[in-house]
Amino acid sequence: RMIHAGKRRGKHLSMSGDGVNDSPALKLAPVGIAMGMAGSDVAKDASDLVLTDDNFDSIRVAVQEGRRLFLNIQRFILHLLTTNVAEVVLLIVGLCFIATDGNTSVFPLSPLAILWVNMLTSSPPAFGLGLERAPADLMKRPPHSTKDGVFTWPVIIDCLSYGIMMGATCLVTFIIIIYGAGNGNNSLLHECNHEHTKECYVVFRARSTVFATLIFQILLYALELKSLDRSLFSLTPGRAFYKDIW
Questions:
Q1: What does pTM read for this prediction?
Q2: Separation of first and last alpha carbons in the chain
């Protein structure tokens, strides 16, 4: 009756038991957990999981580890996708920087720099986020809906908003160097996509600034993703933020 009532209310339940009389409920429950040491063979066959040590605290540890893995997968995917969105915004909008010949675009980031960002800058922080420890209040949070996957609306909104902001910031730095320190459109030469010349000094300076800005933002964003619902400066209440970072 309790399992049917929970299903009618959209709850995700688990049932634990060890006897033959518990097997119908173990079979009916979304997650049936049988005792491995004291449980009967019928109960083990009807259950989804077998608790080898007959310790109920192992269920709590398993739930905590599952929540930690789910949260870390979200962090991992969010960091990689946001970085890709930032690069797409930077490179697509960067096609507007037309060279003086009027036929080609001057790239705000070189192909080698793009490869460096994808392979050596973005990947290690993402892998580190996938190995993060569980937050102190993880088990106090309500369980997420079973219908929700990794790509929830908050994750999608964060991915697009942070990615667009990072890409726009890199574009602003490129514009500042080209039109502030340089001669504007006269600094955009077709040769700057293929070789380094004295005339391309301003373009390569702007690319270096964009490269440094993007790397800084990627690393800072990885620190921000240590918590999806708290600020970087208050990851753990009552604790200095630099201790949580290290």
A1: 0.83
A2: 49
DSSP code, position 17 = E
pLDDT tens for residues 183-207?
A: 877 888 878 888 878 888 888 899 9
Cα separation, 75 vs 79, whole angstroms: 6
How many beta carbons lie within 10 A of that of residue 42, not counting itself?
Answer: 15
Length of the chain: 246
Which position has the token pair 């991992």? 76
Tell me how crowded residue 102 is: count the other CB atoms within 10 A of its CB.
7
Residue 34, token pair as written in the block? 């049988």
Residues 6+ positions from 30 with CB-CB distance below 8 Å = 7, 12, 13, 14
Find the DSSP H helices in 9-56: 23-28, 41-46
d(CA 62, CA 24): 24
Q: Report the C-alpha gap between 151 and 123 in whole angstroms.
A: 20
Q: Is 184 left (phi over 0), alpha (psi -120 to 50) or beta?
A: left
The Cα 93–Cα 72 span in angstroms is 32
